Amino acid sequence: MNSEQPPQLPDEGDARGKPIGRRVLLGTLGLGALGVVTAPTLQRGLESFLAGASDKDPTGLTGLLPNGGGFRYYSVTSSVPRKNADTYRLTVDGLVDRPTSYTLAGLKALPQTRMVRDVQCVTGWRVPDTPFEGVRLSRLLDAAGVRPSAGAVRFTCFDGAYSESLTLDQARRADVLVALRMRDEDLGHAHGGPVRLYVAPMYFYKSAKWLSGITVTEDVEPGYWEERGYDIDAWVGRSNGREDEPTD
Amino acid sequence: MSLRTDTPPAATAVRRFGRAERRVHRTTAVLMGVCVFTAACLYVPQLAQLVGRRALVVTLHQWSGLALPVPVLVGLASRAFRADLGRLNRFGPHDRTWLRAALRRDRRPASRPAGKFNAGQKIYAAWIAGATLVMLGTGLLMWFTHLTPLVWRTSATFVHDWLALTIGIVLAGHIGMALADPEARRGMRTGSVGRDWAEREHPLWRP
Asked: What is the pLDDT of residues A190-242, one digit of tens each?
């Protein structure tokens, strides 16, 4: 094949060529299907490999790979205002005897609880052994004096859109915190700081970021993602059609 | 020779793509662009932080993905487009020669015989079509979560994520090669290419 005058090779329109394009297409489809079938095995191997690699990766690029470890940033609004120790307020109201408003310093002055659990997102990512520290929600509820008619708690956020809810029994669990610190640092803005909710046994969408309001209500009101199809009782491994290992 | 001249004299211009092919390419490119951009906004933390509006971005991603095969399906009504699909599908002996030269990084035109499409373009077309369908299938499994068993959804997410990364890289290659060849771009934009270019890059093509 070195002549400048092309030999009598057929143009591609000619049906004499082999239909390799079709084979490549079908092969790609087949590999995709095979990938879905073998995914559980492949995923386990890759996850353990990447978890090891991300520990030694100074660039943080492995964090961008699928299942590469680390948190992902989700916000439902276009921008979230920033709050600091001067501007932040957390209100507790609704069916309570003593509606209260806490400053950041006020929350810090209360007894703090530290817990180390896995964080599991409903979209699949999991961050192992993440310390959270803050005030037990039950303490704030008791301080406000929940009325007997109450049955649920609604959470609102200063991003202006997100909301969450728990039944009163869930809210009173010892592993539900109003968190001020994560990974032994003050909560940054990207992680929902200065204050977020932390519901250890549930998928992470329950742990509302940028927490600004706690309202005791009669019944559970579905939160932002729950209006869009997620389960209200979001126990890790027992909801949303998932079978993750529990985090409680 | 300036490759940017808008209308070369009629004698030196060769018709490469008709309106149907160009429209299919353009709409597919736009839909793919929306898919990739929204995917990045859902996935890359810095972009997610910049854009937010997660529910809206998800909706855009789902619908542009669903629409992605539509331009090709509509294009099937065009005889010229069907003929090009036929050319992309069929591989002759010269395609093997082209691929061997590509593997050896031999860039001399003489060692890269090609018809209207070279072997690289053929493989790219077939692969991206297959990959798009895999993305569509796994995407639907993730979208309509209550229709399929649980394991399927996790597995679909796994394939969707990794294939997305692969497509991103291959697509960057596709765009990079187009950027490096203004005459090829002109063919896709205006429908015509210079005869010199056609004879050099696609010596076996009989326009």
From this structure: 889 899 999 999 999 999 999 999 999 999 999 888 887 788 999 998 888 77
Any A CB within 8 A of B133 CB: yes
pLDDT in tens, A92-148: 999 999 999 999 999 999 999 999 999 998 877 788 889 999 999 999 999 999 999
Contacts of B125 in chain A (CB under 8 A): 21
Sorted by where each begins, the domain ranges of chain B are 15-201
The one-letter code for the residue type at A11 is D
Helix, strand, or coil (residue B21): helix
Q: Which of B202, B194, B143, B175 is nearest to B4 (CA)?
A: B194
Q: Do B150 and A241 touch (CB under 8 A)?
A: yes
Question: Between chains, do B130 and A18 touch, taking CB under 8 Å as contact?
Answer: no
Q: Please indicate if any CB of chain A lies within 8 Å of the CB of B144.
A: no
> What one-character DSSP code corresponds to residue A8?
S
Question: Which range is most confident: A38-42, A102-106, B10-14?
Answer: A102-106
Tell me the CATH architecture of domain B15-201: Up-down Bundle (1.20)
A17, A72, B78, B86 from B57: Cα distances, Å: 44, 15, 33, 36
Separation of alpha carbons B40 and B56, rounded Å = 14
CB contact under 8 A, B89 and A74: no
Which residues fall within 8 angstroms of residue A48, CB to CB, at 6 or more apart?
A: none
Query: Which residue ranges make up each domain of chain A?
Result: 20-64, 90-228
Contact B12, B189 (CB under 8 A): no
pLDDT tens figures, A156-189? 999 888 999 999 999 999 999 999 999 999 998 8
Structure tokens at B114: 């090609």
SS3 annotation, A78-89: CCCCCCCCCCCC
The per-residue pLDDT for A186 is: 94
The amino acid present at A33, given as its one-letter code, is A
- Per CB-CB distance under 8 Å, the chain B contacts of A80 are 52
Nearest to B115 among A12, A19, A124 (CB): A12
Please provide the CATH number assigned to the domain covering A90-228: 3.90.420.10
Chain A / chain B CB contacts < 8 angstroms: 177
Three-state SS across B81-95? HHHHHHHHHCECHHH
Are the C-beta atoms of residues A73 and A122 closer than 8 Å to each other?
no
Query: Rounded CA gap, B7 and A176, in Å?
Result: 70
Spatial separation of the C-alpha atoms in residues B53 and B67, rounded to whole Å: 22
Of B123, B146, B203, the CB nearest to A6: B203
- Pairwise CB contact (< 8 Å): A241 & B153: yes
